[in-house]
Amino acid sequence: MEIRNCFYRISIKALVLNENRDKFLIVKEDDGRWELPGGGLDWGSTPHEDLPREISEEMGVNVTWIADRPSYFLTCQNSNHEIWIANVLYETKLESLDFTASSECTEVRFVNVEELKELNTFPNLKIFGEMFDPKNH
User: Fold this and answer.
1) Where along the chain do its domains lie?
2) Helix, strand or coil, per DSSP, at residue 50
3) Is 3.40.50.11270 the CATH classification of the domain at 9-136?
4) 68 in helix, strand or coil?
5) Whole-model pTM?
6) pLDDT tens digits for the chain (137 residues)?
């Protein structure tokens, strides 16, 4: 897929908070790196259509609620520095964490900002870690 220099690849990400709302859910991909659940926004789709599809494909879990408005927005270059990406994060609730493993989700865990610093992550997750503030939730 070729994306011209003036465009960003948009991904819709789920911000799944723990009970105390001070940690967020991340998923481990089969290459060992951690990421936020979610994925690319398909052409012509809305975030509320695509996020449940992405979570189902990646984790085999049903989404029960998505906030009306995004909680965070960030931009960065992808891992290979080939394209610029934009992530739009929506607070999301899942039916359960009883996931079905896939190449995009081999493990799940809740982390806080300090724990995140010790993990091998995609660039967007490091940026999100700098932005996350539990007081906003």
Assistant:
1) 9-136
2) helix
3) no
4) coil
5) 0.93
6) 666 677 889 999 999 999 999 999 999 999 999 999 999 999 999 999 999 999 999 999 999 999 999 999 999 998 777 789 999 999 999 999 999 999 999 999 999 999 999 999 999 999 999 999 999 98
